[in-house]
Design a protein that fits this description.
alpha+beta, three-stranded antiparallel beta sheet, 9 strands, globular
Length: 183
């Protein structure tokens, strides 16, 4: 009995359906030789996108391999800690998260109407960020891929940084976002 070959991956060509978030599909650009890209980052979630932006800021040309040409469907992360915010600040995304997120430092869990657990995160008046900020992952990812979302400062640092294209592998096709070397 022979196994049938796995059909090639085909990213969605229509945006995810949502009442709450305006998903959009990024158009792929023509393929470029992979050998011209010294670094490949696998995954276009917050970690992969921030890694690629950090590399681009350092002048390292890289590509981000992803299964979709749009941000994640739904939210796989909802709270970003102070340390996460410090990392987002390094790539210029902190202002967008702070503006769109809900900062907090206290939380209480209830069971049958009674409080059963209370969390209080430490915060000093000199801390740049609150201990935690709620923001849906797809909103953060959109800020990381949408030109202008970080405002004028980000666009000056990384002008025209987003270029999408397809990479053909032996058994699958992966989609890639290419972050060109900063000028």
């Amino acid at each position: 009995m022979s196994a049938e070959p796995t059909p090639p991956h085909r990213p969605a060509t229509t945006p995810h359906a949502s009442l709450y978030f305006p998903y959009r599909v990024h158009a792929p650009a023509p393929a470029a030789p992979v050998r011209d890209l010294p670094v490949a980052v696998v995954g276009a979630g917050p970690i992969g996108l921030v890694t690629a932006l950090g590399l681009a800021q350092q002048g390292v040309r890289c590509t981000v391999l992803t299964a979709q040409l749009q941000v994640c469907e739904g939210s796989r992360a909802i709270v970003f800690t102070r340390r996460s915010m410090e990392i987002l600040q390094q790539v210029g995304a902190d202002a967008a998260v702070t503006a769109g997120g809900l900062p907090w430092r206290f939380g209480t869990s209830h069971y049958r109407g009674q409080p059963v657990f209370r969390l209080e995160a430490p915060h000093d008046e000199h801390d740049r960020f609150q201990p935690m900020i709620n923001l849906q992952q797809q909103v953060l990812e959109q800020c990381l891929v949408a030109p202008g979302c970080f405002g004028h400062q980000m666009m000056q640092r990384l002008p025209h940084w987003l270029d999408t294209r397809r990479i053909q592998t032996r058994s699958h096709r992966l989609d890639a976002l290419t972050f060109p070397r900063q000028q």
